[in-house]
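During the no-cost extension, the postdoctoral fellow (Dr. R.K.) reprocessed legacy sequence entries with the updated structure-token encoder. One reprocessed record is reproduced below for audit purposes.
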Amino acid sequence: MIALSGIPRLKLYSWVLCILFFFGHLPLCTAEIRLKQRPNVIVILLDDAGVETVSAYGSEIPTPNIDDLAAQGVLFENGHATPMCTPSRTRLLTGTYNFRHYKGPFTLEKEFYTLPSYMSDQGYETAVVGKWQLGGVSKVAVEGSFPEDVGYDEYFLWNLNMEPLRGNRYWGPTFVDNGERKRYCNNDFGPDIANQYLLDFIRRKKDKPFFIFYPMMLPHDDSGKDPIWIRTPDSMNAKSVQERFHGMMSYADKLIGKVVSILDKEKLSDSTIIWLVGDNGTHPDIITRIGDRKVRGGKWRTIKSGTHVPFIVKWPSVITAGKRLEGLADIMDLFPTIAAAVAGPNPEGMDGENLMPLILGKVDSVREAIFMHYAPQNDLGAMVPQVHARFAFTEKWKLYDDGRFFDLEFDPNESQFSLYTFKIGDSDARFIQRMESSQRSIARAAMKKLYNVMDDVGDPKMPPIVNPNQTWPRSEKAKTAITEPTECQQAKTY
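Re-encoded structure tokens follow.
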């Protein structure tokens, strides 16, 4: 274990790595051969896209480029994030439970060590491109919530400021380009502009190891109290909500294909890790067919469709292609896993797990359950339902700290009566009588395991729901106005 500050630059001693691997202390001797050319890392975050929106998981929506990532890498059948965007993003950035670092809506406090800071300490060029979700967008704007605070060398972002400075994300978008605010013309499409910046970053940094976080704007609605589902350049004739959403998801897939293409063109594919994940479930407006069933988006809800997200990793020089993994994976596992993948020092204080042994096929699972202390403390008022909950779950079972206990295979939407009738800790735990006695025994054992998982975390009591009218302190960065451009700026063509 190492301290969170003063981490030394990465030094590669192949013989040490192989000896450690031989004695079972490192999962990655197979990757070490290539680590003389350290892998680039690109993390792609889909915005509001559950597993039912990706055809590799059985969706009716064609996503051929994402499917290719899965075919050439590994697909996690049980990858999860929190039910809401910002807690998932801070969980990813810090590799820790939200109760440790999430003090208010849309914030990350400065004392927390982050994945981009870690990658910078290992000598990586770092960039974030797309949608920002912290800092000035919130009524709480603390130091630590801005791109440069968390370790990015470059940034090109929408959503870095509150209205009226925030501007649009889609048509006629506004971005902050490394501190300079730019308003593009009404016929320019924001996701295209962000994607072009990312491709240019890869071209400029191709001779150095780089880390890119690509939090996409798609397929999120153009939000307000009433969501607006937009037409993309490829779906200008789409009419219904479903048609428009399908077009948005397809366009996200197209942009991901462009990232893969530039890596191929620059001969970087074999030495680049691409990790695609979702930040939460799909918006409840959207109903998507997956296989023989229809799934309503579960964003904001703690049910399975609120947390079950695409989770795909491609690393051609190391990972055996085409595997589908059943083991549980949490979005906070990205930090420790990427640290292991680049053979960097082990970051201290992680709640996330290193998934490399699972990815490399050395084990069937690395975690027995996923725990969530879900308290988003959102300041959006009546725009979204407010739910605070503590729960733990496996692939099959789920337990809330109020005693509700569900069989997720039988009831993924938690719509039936709980299998457990009394509160946790009651010695007379009664399960519904229609269960076979053998199944009751299995359920009791699962409930006990999940109870122990929650009991061992040591998290505090749930905070109260935030009053959206509460006055919050704001940092000087957030208060600083950026001059509104008087004319739009034509997007570059690379």
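DSSP finds 13 helices and 16 strands in the chain. The chain has a mean pLDDT of 84. The remaining legacy entries will be reprocessed before the final report is submitted.
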